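Q: What residues go here?
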C-alpha cells in the first residue's frame, strides 16, 4: 500500500484518476484528451482481460466436470450457475434460452471488474511506471464509458428482442397507444421514449457511481503515507517505522478476527498514544491508520462489489422480461 512518487496530495489523486488514453486518429498515447476517437486504453484492456478470465474459469470447470463427487472449484461454479438460474426463473417467464447465459456473463464479468478495486492502490500503477507507462487505472467499472457501454448493450439487446417477441405491431402499439390511448399518441410516444432511455442511463450510472466512490476512498486512504515517497523521507528510520506500523496493523486485525476484541482495542488505542509520546514515529502511525482503515473499508466494500454485480444482473433480466411482456 505504499504510494508512488507524487508527493502532493492533489497531484497524487489526480494521477490515479487519469486514464491511459490512445488516440485512434493520431495513433499515439495522449493525456487528458477528449473526443470520440480517444480510447481509455487501460479500461478496454482490463475489461477484455477479465472477460477472458471469466471464459477460462468456466471453461476449465466444464472441462473437468465430473458426475461423481465434485471438487471445490466445480461446486463453486455450479453454485454460481444455480444461483443465476434461480434468479432468471423468478423474473423471466418467457422462452428465450439466451437470457440465463447472458445474466451469468453479466454478473461474473461485472464482479471481476469490481474486484480490481480490492487490490492495493499503487500495485499496478507502480509496475506500469517502472515499464514507462505514466498513467494506469485498473478499475473498468469506474469508467463511465465501460459502465454505460454495458448498459447500452443490454438495452439494445432487450429492444431488438422486443420486436422478436411482440412484432413491429406490438412494439408500435406500446409506443403510440399506451398509457393514454390513441388520442394522445405524441404524449404516449414521448413518455415511452423517456422510459426506455432511462433504463441504460440508470443502470450504467448506478454501477459507475458506486465503484467510482469506492475507488476515491481507497485513494484517499493511501494518502496517509504519501510523505514517505519524498526523497528526503526515504530514510532507514522512516522505512522501519512504516514496517512497524504495518506489522502492528496486521496484529490488530488478527486479534479482532480471532475474537480477542479487548486486546485488539487496547492495541488500537495504544498506538496513537505511543505516537504522541514519540515512541512510534509519524510514518508508523500513518501506515497503521492507513492499513486499518483500508482493511475496514475493504471488508465493507466486498458487499458493495457483490451487490453492484447482482443489481446489474437483476436489471438485465428484468429489462429482458419487460421486452417480452405483452401489454
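A:
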Amino acid at each position: 500500500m505504499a504510494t508512488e512518487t507524487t508527493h502532493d496530495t492533489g497531484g497524487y489523486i489526480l494521477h490515479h484518476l487519469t486514464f491511459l488514453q490512445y488516440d485512434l486518429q493520431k495513433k499515439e498515447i495522449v493525456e487528458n484528451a477528449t473526443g470520440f476517437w480517444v480510447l481509455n486504453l487501460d479500461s478496454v484492456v482490463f475489461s477484455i482481460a477479465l472477460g477472458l478470465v471469466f471464459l477460462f474459469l468456466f471453461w476449465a470447470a466444464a472441462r473437468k466436470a465430473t458426475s461423481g463427487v465434485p471438487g471445490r472449484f466445480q461446486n463453486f461454479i455450479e453454485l454460481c450457475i444455480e444461483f443465476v438460474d434461480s434468479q432468471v426463473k423468478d423474473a423471466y417467464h418467457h422462452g428465450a434460452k439466451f437470457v440465463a447465459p447472458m445474466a451469468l456473463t453479466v454478473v461474473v464479468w461485472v464482479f471481476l471488474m469490481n474486484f480490481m478495486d480490492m487490490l492495493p492502490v499503487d500495485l499496478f500503477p507502480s509496475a506500469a511506471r517502472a515499464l514507462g507507462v505514466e498513467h494506469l487505472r485498473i478499475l473498468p467499472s469506474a469508467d463511465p464509458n465501460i459502465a454505460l457501454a454495458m448498459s447500452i448493450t443490454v438495452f439494445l439487446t432487450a429492444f431488438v428482442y422486443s420486436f422478436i417477441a411482440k412484432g413491429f405491431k406490438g412494439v408500435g402499439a406500446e409506443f403510440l397507444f399506451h398509457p393514454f390511448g390513441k388520442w394522445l399518441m405524441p404524449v404516449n410516444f414521448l413518455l415511452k421514449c423517456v422510459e426506455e432511455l432511462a433504463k441504460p442511463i440508470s443502470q450504467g450510472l448506478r454501477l459507475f457511481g458506486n465503484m467510482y466512490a469506492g475507488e476515491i476512498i481507497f485513494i484517499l486512504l493511501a494518502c496517509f503515507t504519501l510523505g514517505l515517497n519524498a526523497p528526503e523521507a526515504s530514510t532507514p528510520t522512516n522505512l522501519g517505522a512504516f514496517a512497524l506500523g504495518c506489522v502492528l496493523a496486521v496484529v490488530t486485525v488478527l486479534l479482532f478476527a480471532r475474537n480477542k476484541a479487548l486486546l485488539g482495542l487496547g492495541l488500537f488505542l495504544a498506538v496513537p498514544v505511543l505516537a504522541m509520546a514519540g515512541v512510534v514515529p509519524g510514518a508508523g502511525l500513518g501506515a497503521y491508520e492507513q492499513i486499518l482503515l483500508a482493511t475496514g473499508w475493504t471488508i465493507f466494500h466486498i458487499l458493495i462489489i457483490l451487490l453492484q454485480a447482482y443489481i446489474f444482473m437483476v436489471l438485465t433480466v428484468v429489462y429482458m422480461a419487460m421486452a417480452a411482456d405483452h401489454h
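A: Context that may help when evaluating the design: The CA atoms of residues 150 and 197 lie 14 Å apart. The two ends are 55 Å apart (CA to CA).
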